Amino acid sequence: MASVLDDPTLERHFKGHKDAVTCADFSPNNKQLASGSVDKSLMIWNLALKTRAFRFVGHQDVITGVQFSPSGNLVATSSKDRTVRLWTPSMKGESTEFKAHTASVRSVAFSHDGQRLVTASDDKSVKVWSVHRQCFIYSLNQHTNWVRCARFSPDGRLIASCGDDRSVRLWDTSSKQCINCFTDYGGSTTFVEFNSSGTCIASSGADSSLKIWDLRTNKLIQHYQVHSAGINSFSFHPSNNYLISGSTDGMVKILDLLEGRLIYTLHGHKGAVITVAFSRTGDQFASGGADGQVLLWKTNFDTKSYQEVLQQHSRRSTPDPTPHLSDIHPKVPHLHRPQSTAIRISQTVADTQSADPRVVELGQAVHSTMLLNGQTRLMPTQTAPSRHHSNRLPAFRVANLREEGWKGEESTRRAGSTLESQIGAGGGGRGRREEEEEREEIKPPEVHQSSLDSTLRHIVQQLDILTQTVSVLEERLTLTEDKLKECLLHQSKIFKDVRSSGERRRTDSRETDGSSVHFT
C-alpha cells in the first residue's frame, strides 16, 4: 500500500468568511494566506498554529481578486465596487483606494518587480497602475466584452488578458499594443496565467476546458477537458510540472503537465470551488469555495516522480495507459478527457491541528486615492463598522448571486423566463386563460422588436466608442498631470535660484559699501 504522505493531504481549514470565498494568495514567505469573499472582507490568515486572523473591511461590494506584493509588505484587492485597494497587512488596517474603472474590477495582479499593478474590468478595459506613485498609467482597449482576468509575464514585458468575448489577448507593455489573440474557445474565458518561466500561458473557460499555449511558437500544446463544469481558477506549480484547477463542479483537479494527464481529483468543498493557489515554494496549496471555507492542503506528490506515484497506486486504482509519443514534450495539440481510473481523494473536512483562529476586526481605510479630472487626490473616507451584519436575502437569491458572479455566462432569455415565473408564482389567484389573454394583449409586434434590437445595438456601439474616448482622455490627463508636476518643480527651482542670486547681490553690495566707507 502507498503511504498516505505521497498523496495531497488536507492540513487545515479556515472558517471566518460569512459568504463564498472568491480569491486567495500566499505571502512570499509562506507565513500568511490572504483571501477575499462575497462578504466584502479581506482575511489575512497566519499559518502558524494558535495565531490570530485579521479581517480588513473597506470594500463596498464583493472582493474579486487578491494578491501579495513580491516583497510581502502590501496586499492588493479588486472589487465589484469599481475600486482597487492597496492594504498594509498590519494592525492599523490602512489602505489606499484607486479609482479609474467605470464598472466592476474582476482581477488584480502585481508585476514581478512590485512596481506596477494590472487590473481587468467589466468596462472592457485592462488598466496598468503605478504602485509607488499610486496612480493610473494607461489602458489597453481591444476586448469587446467584460474582461475577467489579466496577468503580467515574469519579465514584465507582456500582459495576458481574457474575457467574455471568448478570447485571450497578449499585450506588449512597451508599445501598449495587442500582439496576439487566441480565440479557440466555446464560451467565455475565465482565468489566465503565465508559467514561472514565461514561455507558456494557460487559460480556462466556462466550457470546462483548460488550454496551454506555447508563446515561442504561438501554438496550442495541451488541451484538458477534465471537469464537468466551468473552471473558475487554476495555478501553476513553481516547477511548471503540475497545475491545479478549481471548478463549479465542486472538485479540485491536479494535472501532471510533463506526462500530460490528470493524476488527482480532490473532494473537500461543499459546492463550487472558486479559487485555488499554490504557495511560492509549491509545498502547499489552498482552495476556496462557495461554502465559505479556505482549505489548506499539503502537496506531497511533487516530492516523487510520476512513475513512482503510479507504481505505488497500482494496487488501488488502474492508472492511465503508457503515454504515447505525442504526450512527451514537445507536444502536439491533443485532447485529454476525464477517465474513470483517475485517482480520487475524498478528504474529511476536519481541522485536527487547531481550532478556528480568533479573528481581529480592523476598520476601513484612512484615506483613498481617486482619479478625478485627471488629478490624483487624497480623499478622507468614513470608518466602517467593525462588525458584519448577516445577509438577510432569501437563500435562493444568494445562490443566484453567487452563480451570476462566477459562471460568467448570462442569458437574457433565461433571466426573462425566471422573472415571468416569479411574477406568475406571486399571482396565485388568477386563471390560466386570463394570463394568456394578458400575454396576447401585451405581446409587441415583430416590427417593434426588430427596431428595438437595432436601437440597442446602436447604443452598445456608442458606449464602446465612449469607453475608448474616456480611456484616451484618461491617458492624456495623466500625461498632463506629469507635465504640470515637472513644470512646478522647474518653476520652484528657478524661484530658488533667483532668490539665492538676489541675496548674493545684496551681500556683495553691502560688502562694497562697507569697504568704501572704511577707505574714506
Provide tags for this entry.
single chain, 5 helices, 35% strand, alpha+beta, 23% helix, 5-stranded mixed β-sheet, globular, 520 residues
What distance separates the N and C termini? 114 Å
How much helicity do the residues have? 10-25%
What's the gyration radius in Å? 28 Å
Largest sheet: 5 strands, mixed
Strand content: 35-45%
Q: What is the averaged pLDDT score?
A: 77
The dominant shape is globular
Structural category is: alpha+beta
Strand order of the largest sheet: 2-3-4-5-31
Low-confidence stretches: 1-5, 315-341, 348-354, 365-447
Number of helices: 5
How would the blueprint of this fold be written?
Elements: E1 9-15, E2 21-26, E3 32-37, E4 41-46, E5 53-57, E6 63-68, E7 75-79, E8 83-87, E9 95-99, E10 105-110, E11 116-121, E12 126-130, E13 135-140, E14 147-152, E15 158-163, E16 168-172, E17 177-182, E18 189-194, E19 200-205, E20 210-214, E21 219-224, E22 231-236, E23 242-247, E24 251-256, E25 261-267, E26 273-278, E27 284-289, E28 293-298, H1 306-313, E29 335-336, E30 344-346, E31 359-362, E32 367-372, E33 375-380, H2 395-407, H3 412-427, H4 432-442, H5 446-519
Parallel strand pairs: 5-31, 21-29, 25-30
Antiparallel strand pairs: 1-28, 2-3, 3-4, 4-5, 6-7, 7-8, 8-9, 10-11, 11-12, 12-13, 14-15, 15-16, 16-17, 18-19, 19-20, 20-21, 22-23, 23-24, 24-25, 26-27, 27-28, 32-33
